[in-house]
Amino acid sequence: MSSTRTRIAASVAAAAGLAALAAAPASAAPADGRCQAAGIAALKTLGPLSGFVENGVPVAAALDAGATVRPGKEAVAATLPAVLPFQVVLADHRAGSDSILVYPWCS
């Protein structure tokens, strides 16, 4: 029974993390727009962009490409699912210093 509660709690925490990412400002600063464009270019080096758009972006792929968890965001990052929806990854790129991950192609 406790494993079911643990899974439910993890799902709720993951949903909260995704909601925080999706709530990133739509009117991003130009630098964040450049970060998003650089992120798309980085994804294209890993495979067809359409695959990421349709199937999401594995967090492990972002980490393998050099992204790191932003200091202070470790607890939020621990709740993320293994694969993030493409739109959520774009929102994280636009979030600037509020993003969960730090992307080397954005510095």
Task: Please describe what this structure looks like.
By secondary structure, this protein is mainly alpha-helical. The chain has one domain (2-106). The protein has six helices and four strands, in the order αααβαβαβαβ. The strands form two sheets. Strands 1-3 form a two-stranded antiparallel ribbon. The chain has a two-stranded antiparallel sheet with strand order 2-4. Helix 2 (30-46) packs across helix 6 (86-94). The longest helix has 21 residues, at 2-22. Mean pLDDT is 80; it is low at 1-16 and 19-29.
Query: Mean pLDDT across all residues, rounded?
Result: 80
Helix content: 55-70%
Q: How far is the N terminus from the C terminus?
A: 46 Å
- What is the strand arrangement across the widest sheet? 1-3
Tell me, briefly, the overall form: globular
Quickly give the structural class. Answer: mainly alpha
| Radius of gyration based on Cα positions | 14 Å
Q: Which stretches are poorly predicted, pLDDT < 50 over at least 5 residues?
A: 1-16, 19-29
